[in-house]
Amino acid sequence: MDDREQSGTGEAEFREPEESAEALVTRLETIDDDAAERRAASLRAGLDDFELDEEDLELLEGAEQGPEGITYLPALPVLAIVGRPNVGKSALVNRILGRREAVVEDKPGVTRDRVTYKAEWLGRRFSLVDTGGWEPDAQGINASVAAQAEVAVDLADAVLFVVDINVGATATDEHVVRMLRASRKPVILVANKSDDAVKDPQAAELWGLGLGEPWPLSALHGRGVADLLDHVMTVLPEVSAVAKQEIGGPRRVAILGRPNVGKSSLLNKAAGEERVVVNELAGTTRDPVDEQVELAGKIWTFVDTAGIRKRVHLQQGADFYASLRTSAALEKAEVAVVVIDVTEPVSVQDLRIIDLVLESGRALVMAYNKWDLLDDDRRRYLEREIEQDLAHVAWAPRVNISARTGRHLEKLVPALELALQSWDTRIPTGKLNALIAELTAEHPHPVRSGKQPRVLFGTQASTRPPTFVLFTTGFLDPQYRRFITRRLREVYGFEGTPIEVNMRVREKRKRER
Predict the structure, then answer these.
(1) Residue 67: pLDDT band with limits 50, 70, 90
(2) What are residue 499's phi and psi, to 5 degrees?
(3) In order of start, what are the domains of the chain with their CATH numbers?
């Protein structure tokens, strides 16, 4: 039967073909690399007939053909804006961007998440990160906001610390200063809401914070912002030192799992010493614990994290803060080892932790712990649970271990290396478009509302995790995108890493009469 079987609505339904991956790989191997690159260049030229925005052009610039089919653009330096609530951080973001992007309202706590924007000054481009208000001893969602601000500082090349010149330095500002000093990042002190020169002398009081010269300005009216940005350009590096972690140093491995599955035991056994407290009482670990360990002749940075019990907004007290710090530790890691207790059924908490890793875009290794306690009956049930509940991460390397005895711990290293290698994988543009051409020619997208979407051009936007962008003439069904994702895995592996396939629907440019 034809793959484009007619549905009851009169539109074609896409049925994924049962073609083997080997047959597809064989066909791709017959395509000459030079021919594939020439074809990709031709497809890229064809995009000039379509309406493209600045982000499209920036993405395509990073996909220009080189010796290996693609070249990297240097990582943009990162500038984070922090401060207590309602000092005008988002207003300053909008002023720097030259447009109203960040939501601004005359009440504290409007911004909650970290939001990144692309900005430019004096011909230099950089990433600008807006954060929520930082408060010590925050409770509930405010604690989550504060944690996000701290992560933003860790992942920035320089920081703008915004203070309200009308209020002066408060106890909260002094707490923020201590946090900033601990980060050892370059900090520029901004005295906002100085609407005229009469208020500028009030900025002198802020010298007491010990962060150097304060810069009085008005984000609302734009007064003094240009001088501030001139100074920022002398502090920001040309290429970010943090936007892309260096591969040369120890790779960071976060150990995640629900309470009492053996995360701390795994770290202790890898380190060869009692590095962290292990107790049968669930929830012993509260703070992420970093430890450099040597496995298979290589140095790794293992991070033991607190067990995640339930949803963050349902947690209270120490468990709440432990969960926040666990999320922050995952964001700083490169690969996550999710530990599953094989003596108990796979739980909703296990699935939620895996989803947390997938949302973070980190590489993933599944470690099934307490394997030495497994009997035959439980093993049969476990395999069925893995097949049914964990099918969406079937691509993640699996290691059966015993953290208590050290059984098969040496198998963890090849799994980590495989996941990280996949996480860093980049496919040349020519080969990617050759694959897409094969797929769309043999199995075209179904017709929708009388039109058949076409894929014009594909490029890999980034690695870590591998992210692909398809320029199309229409919306691709989720099922068809999953089909492309599955074929990418079958041809190129990508074992141990999530991959993203995004699309940009573009219309043909109208001809001028």
Answers:
(1) very low
(2) -130, 145
(3) 4-71+426-505 (3.30.300.20), 78-235 (3.40.50.300), 251-416 (3.40.50.300)
Buried b / exposed e along 392-427 (16+ C-beta atoms within 10 A)? ebebbbebbbbbbeebebebbbebbbbbbebbebeb
> In a 3-state reduction of DSSP, which class is residue 85?
coil
Task: List all residues 6 or more positions away from 61 whose beta carbon is below 8 Å from its beta carbon.
Answer: 73
Q: Which two tokens stand for residue 151?
A: 């992560």
Q: pLDDT digit string (tens) for 223-239? A: 999 999 999 999 999 88
| Residues 26, 490 contacting (CB under 8 angstroms) | no
394: part of which helix (H) or strand (E)?
none
Q: Are 241 and 249 in contact (CB under 8 A)?
A: no
Nearest Cα neighbor of 97 from 109, 83, 115, 84 is 115
Structure tokens at 321: 């803060």
Is residue 478 pLDDT above 60, yes or no? Answer: yes
| Helix H or strand E encompassing 203 | none
Q: Which helix or strand (DSSP H or E) is residue 353 part of?
A: helix 348-360
Q: Answer for the pair 161, 188: CB distance below 8 angstroms, yes or no.
A: yes
Q: Tell me, what DSSP letter sits at residue 508? A: B
pLDDT tens-place string over residues 28-58: 777 878 888 888 888 888 898 898 888 888 7
Spatial neighbors of 325 by CB under 8 A, at least 6 apart, are: 147, 287, 288, 305, 306
Characterize the bridge pairing of strands 215-216 and 187-192.
parallel
Task: Return the closest-CA partner of residue 99 out of 82, 120, 76.
Answer: 120
Whether omega before 465 lies within 30 degrees of 0, making that bond cis, reads yes
DSSP annotation of 34 = H
Helix 141-154 / helix 317-332 crossing angle, nearest 10 deg: 30
The pair of structure tokens assigned to 188 is 């520029």
Q: How far apart are CA 416 and CA 371, in angstroms?
A: 19
Q: Which residues, including other chains, have CB under 8 Å from residue 488's CB and lie 6 or more apart?
A: 435, 468, 494, 499, 501
Separation CA 341–CA 352 (nearest Å): 15
pLDDT grade for 135, boundaries at 50, 70 and 90:
low
Amino acid (one-letter) located at 13: E
Picking from 251, 246, 303, the residue whose alpha carbon sits closest to that of residue 415 is 251
